[in-house]
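The following block was generated as part of the benchmark described in Methods. Ligand: zinc ion.
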Amino acid sequence: MIQNIWAVGRNYADHAKELGNEVPTSPLVFLKAGSCATLAAKEIHLPEWGKDIHHEMELALQFDENLQIDEACIALDLTERTKQAELKAKGSPWTLAKSFKEACPLSSFFPVADLEDLKNLELIFKVNGQVKQQGNTNQMIFTLEKLIDFVRQHFPVMPGDLLLTGTPAGVGPLKSGDTVEAEIVGKITHKWSVK
Ligand code: ZN
């Protein structure tokens, strides 16, 4: 069971820039409820109130019973961008923008023998066959080790929890009727239809 989803914001410089944000000097971590996750589902159900739900494709790591990383997957850190901008402007928490129902679609998991294997992976996200997001995990501002240490040090990480490692540039809206495909080249591909 996934209790907590520890998510990292602005871990790719080009994505921080596209939203007009400064590059952080220490990891920017926010929480999505573990119950936002949908595992290897075929559909994404957008909330009716959400008018501007953006895709953020990310490499997600899962903590095992010793709080080491034993598996990884693709996560979509779905975000209601208009709400997020309003909340940000007021200095309010992002929960409504980030932690709504089904806000974290996941692919299936693949095994991780060594973190080194995850440091040069191409991430590709397509909407209706068109590439929208493309990046490489070698562009991360904070390394996987740094992120893992940071969350273990500061938060009550539980076995099964996920760590979302940030999204590359190219985020944008999803709408009902879209077909989306996320690929971590050489590891895993997953498709969803958006309802
Ligand atoms: Zn994100």
